[in-house]
Amino acid sequence: MKKFSIKDRLKSFIYAYRGIIVAVKTQHNLQIHIIAMLICIFFGLILKINQTEWILLILFFALVIAMEIINSAIELLTDIASPQFNSKAANVKDMAAGAVLISAIAAIIAGIIIFVPKIIQQIF
After folding, report:
1. From 68, 96, 100, 104, the catalytic residue
2. What is the pLDDT of residues 87-121, one digit of tens each?
3. Cβ neighbours of residue 24 under 8 Å, at least 6 residues apart?
4. What count of other Cβ atoms lies within 10 Å of the Cβ of residue 60?
5. Is 68 a catalytic residue?
6. Is 82 exposed, middle or buried (0-12, 13-18, 19+ CB in 10 A)?
């Protein structure tokens, strides 16, 4: 086991940051999730959501974005491991995409629960 090193720990943050930047620059679905997140932040500020609602939104933002980055990494690795079509590789990619879809649906439901009553309250 390698000895603990603060320098190595700092490098790991740099690598993680680089991975996030690569994902944001290259993954269109991630860009869509980020736009949706920014829209939710805007409406959260306008509608003055409470602290608990902010915490829930932040957790869902993190979940969906993390799932999208993991999905992208799995797809990339699968393409490297299996450049020709392989039904099992396709299943791996589909399952990873399904995980993103589940997290996005949960985030949408939470958003509806948080925002719709506040929008209705503003209208009436």
Report:
1. 68
2. 999 999 999 999 999 999 999 999 999 999 999 99
3. 30, 31, 34
4. 21
5. yes
6. middle
